[in-house]
Design goal:
1 helix; 4-stranded antiparallel sheet; mainly beta; about 5% helix
């Protein structure tokens, strides 16, 4: 039978101050034990998970930052009647134009976001680039 997990209930948790294991639950938040008080020396500290509790703890999910979106292809078909142009911020591009970017490789213009910004599909993913900029 599992021990009660409510404020005031007894729980085993090693005290860093005196080494005793008997503690009393002081707080619970969202079903998790927060603070405990040592029954021997009276010191209060955060509840330390036991080995059994650590094994029951769910594994962490992968961070979305570390997961690259899988490219599915450009939203528009490239206009094959026009040649691939080298990318330059001073040029003006149209949807469907193919460009050759120094770092990202060959891409297809998917959207004109504003007079100075374009969305480009590259095999590694979509990028926002500048257009129509003069020095």
């Amino acid at each position: 039978m599992a021990a009660k997990r409510e404020v005031g209930a007894d729980i085993q948790n090693k005290c860093q101050k005196c080494g005793d294991g008997a503690h009393v639950i002081m707080s619970i938040t969202n079903g998790r034990i927060g603070k405990v008080e040592c029954a021997q020396c009276g010191s209060q500290h955060r509840h330390r998970l036991t080995d059994a509790e650590k094994q029951m703890k769910p594994a962490k999910r992968a961070s979305r930052k570390n997961v690259a979106p899988e490219p599915v292809g450009p939203m528009v078909e490239p206009d094959l009647s026009r040649p691939i142009r080298p990318y330059q911020t001073s040029e003006i591009y149209a949807v469907g134009d193919r460009i050759d970017h120094q770092s990202f490789g060959t891409g297809v213009i998917e959207r004109i976001m504003s007079p100075s910004k374009i969305q480009v599909y590259f095999p590694d993913g979509q990028k926002m680039l500048l257009q129509g900029r003069t020095l």
